[in-house]
Specification:
The chain is mainly α. The chain has five helices and no strands. The longest helix has 10 residues. InterPro entries: Cro/C1-type_HTH, Lambda_DNA-bd_dom_sf, YdaS_toxin-like.
Length: 88
């Protein structure tokens, strides 16, 4: 995950220090996340929101967000369920 997070931080034009300021943590904490340390469960959604949902809760913590759409706001979730009550 760490390379994905590093790349997405760079693609968004953000810095680790900038993210740290927005979250209210030292830059070193964000650096550790970007270098492979697990993001705490209490910070996953906050980090995803700062990243404009370009990194997902599933990407950061698949152990607590096992499905790709888990934790995403409704507008970012897509339905893969077939319509019910419709005959083919």
């Amino acid at each position: 995950m760490h390379e994905c997070l590093k790349n997405k931080i760079h693609q968004r034009g953000l810095s680790q220090a900038g993210i740290a300021r927005l979250i209210g943590l030292p830059q070193q904490v964000v650096s550790r996340w970007a270098n492979g340390q697990q993001v705490p469960a209490s910070r996953v959604l906050q980090l995803c929101e700062i990243m404009a949902w370009e990194v997902t809760p599933h990407e950061l913590r698949p152990d607590i967000y096992p499905n790709p759409t888990d934790g995403l706001p409704a507008e970012f979730q897509t339905s893969t369920q077939p319509a019910t009550g419709v005959d083919s």
